Amino acid sequence: MFTLSFLNTASDMPRRASLGRLVTQSTALLMVCIGTLILGLALLILFHENANATKGYNLRKLENQRSLLLLEQEVLNMQIAESQALEHLRQDPLIQAMIPVQKLKYIQQDPAVAFIRE
Description:
Shape: rod-shaped
Number of domains: 1
Order of helices and strands: HHH
Helix content: over 70%
Radius of gyration: 48 Å
Largest sheet: none
């Protein structure tokens, strides 16, 4: 009987050792999984921040282009106003070279009739 109980404890010893090894392995596996998850989340945050920084750079570039275009539009509006000014038209050499009309004749007929045959 003593030998039987010795055999039972001998067969239980490797089982307990393997159970301890299994717990150690599962703990190590859990740590590796948690570490991988943390690393993956860190990379995800890094890529997200990089995308935000790139969008900010593009936004700043577009704002600079917009301000330059608004300035150019303002200059063009000023040039349009200058060319449409009456004083500019009076001093235009092409207009000053025009000959004034000598005899003015106004037509006082029916304006709807373009040509009358007699």
